[in-house]
Amino acid sequence: MNPKVLLTSKEIDIILHRLACQLVEKHLDFSNTLLIGIQPRGKFLAERIKSILKTEYGISEVPLGFLDITFFRDDFRRNQKTLEANKTQIDFLVEDKKVVFIDDVLYTGRSIRAALTAIQSFGRPAEIELLVLIDRRFSRHLPIQPDYRGRQVDAFDEETIRVHWSEHEQEDAVFLEETEKN
Amino acid sequence: MKELSVNHLLGIKYINKNDIDLIFETADHFKEVINRPIKKVPSLRDITIANIFFENSTRTKLSFELAQKRLSADVISFSAAQSSVKKGETLIDTVNNILAMKVDMVVMRHSDAGAAHFLSKNVKASIVNAGDGAHEHPTQALLDSYSIREKLGDVAGKKVVIVGDILHSRVALSNIFALQMQGAEVKVCGPKTLIPKYIESLGVKVEPNLRKALEWCDAANMLRVQNERLDFSYFPNTREYSQQFGLTKEILDSLDKEIVVMHPGPINRGVEITSDVADSQQSVILDQVENGVAVRMAVIYLLASKIK
């Protein structure tokens, strides 16, 4: 199966602006709010959202961190391969703050489960919300739902959703393709 | 994804440069973890580790235990002094009895060279060598290199001198292997009686003069004078040793560059290194201790992920 384009660069742009707008609607001046990109792929989306908040709404002081969940995953040793970590960069305490987790694709919910545990190492947040670009409906293993979603997608388990970002892969695009068999 | 090429860490000799790189990259992440307000991750919840120390140790044992606990492993620790080893039990029997209690990994220190290697061939668990006789002490060498990398940016191309009792030192041997593997140049310096006869066959030069050695190097690893291993007089007395091979502030300040001063601990203040040097800006002795926990977490995490 050839990759099918789910979202083009233009559509992604519109969606990102809407998501940023929804965030502002809820958090207003972001005085008590932190953005956390979930590593590795949530990082790009989180940076985009932050930049839109600055250019469109003049909100420049939102703290942005990146959380790696590798050591909190529930499939250690259940996976054939060693789980490789990414950089965590959270230079602030999350105690009593409103935290927004940002990730590109919400699938089984297990990454977010791990992130909910991992963030506790940095304090006790007042509340945690979840923003995702793609919500793979009907695929959840856990009772976790997004608060802000870019696009809802129905996909089979044998299919993978791949999000490309221009910072990393030349262009913004979202693809649906068959999962590569190892 | 990357993984270690080995199932046990028996010595630096048995691993390769890619393994060292992977351990250091992983240790970078763990160093960030142990500086968090809550310094613990749940990765090794279902792993049980036995620390078996047939020889005294404070910092290595503490460092391993802390690393294991920070990874949420279950830990049992055991010192030979209070054990059935005294009653005549063999090494394999002791360890197999411990493994019968469903232990996945064994960290062992033993006074005989090759003990960890022997164990890895005879018992079913992942083995980490925490020092075997005068053979190897791989995690110490890894944390030493990690500290050099942290301070100087890279290990490749750096010049490191190891000063002191090279003959009895497993730290020296593991360091030589680790540093050379990463492209550093190594010299040793110490009393002739404490330099092994064939050390040059490892590609290591001997520099008998401490000042010349220090002028040459980027980092100096000052080994402890191990009185407990000196079964007869290798040098007249500690005063003479410290005059010739002790690192003092005067020598350090007279060099035209800043070198990194390391020591694997425990320090004999005033013998191999003076107090003002040990506590100076150039000393990374306490960084080595902190890095020791991060590096050991990385080693244990990477080995544990290979336990099936």
UniProtKB/TrEMBL annotation, chain A:
Protein name, per record? Pyrimidine operon attenuation protein / uracil phosphoribosyltransferase
InterPro entries for this protein: PRTase-like (IPR029057), PRTase_dom (IPR000836), PyrR_bifunctional (IPR050137)
**A Pfam family reported for this protein in Swiss-Prot or TrEMBL:** Pribosyltran
- Cross-referenced NCBIfam families, in alphabetical order? PRK05205.1-5
Superkingdom, taxonomy of origin: Bacteria
Q: List each copy of the Phosphoribosyltransferase domain by range.
A: 9-167
Which keywords appear in this protein's UniProt record, sorted alphabetically? Glycosyltransferase, Transferase
Q: Which GO terms describe its molecular function?
A: glycosyltransferase activity
List the transmembrane segments: none
Automatic annotation (TrEMBL), chain B:
Would you say which domain of life the source belongs to?
Bacteria
Q: What is its EC number?
A: 2.1.3.2
Q: Which reaction does it catalyse?
A: carbamoyl phosphate + L-aspartate = N-carbamoyl-L-aspartate + phosphate + H(+)
Annotated ranges, domain Aspartate/ornithine carbamoyltransferase carbamoyl-P binding: 8-150
The UniProt keywords, alphabetically, are: Pyrimidine biosynthesis, Transferase
Q: What class of enzyme is it?
A: transferase
Residues that, per the record, bind carbamoyl phosphate: 59-60, 109, 137, 140, 265-266
Give me the residues that bind L-aspartate, please: 87, 170, 224
GO BP terms: namely:
'de novo' pyrimidine nucleobase biosynthetic process; 'de novo' UMP biosynthetic process; amino acid metabolic process
Where is the Aspartate/ornithine carbamoyltransferase Asp/Orn-binding domain positioned along the sequence? 157-302
* GO MF annotations, alphabetized: amino acid binding; aspartate carbamoyltransferase activity
Concerning its family, UniProt says: Belongs to the aspartate/ornithine carbamoyltransferase superfamily. ATCase family.
Q: Which purpose does this protein serve, as stated in its record?
A: Catalyzes the condensation of carbamoyl phosphate and aspartate to form carbamoyl aspartate and inorganic phosphate, the committed step in the de novo pyrimidine nucleotide biosynthesis pathway.
Question: Which protein, by its recorded name, is this?
Answer: Aspartate carbamoyltransferase
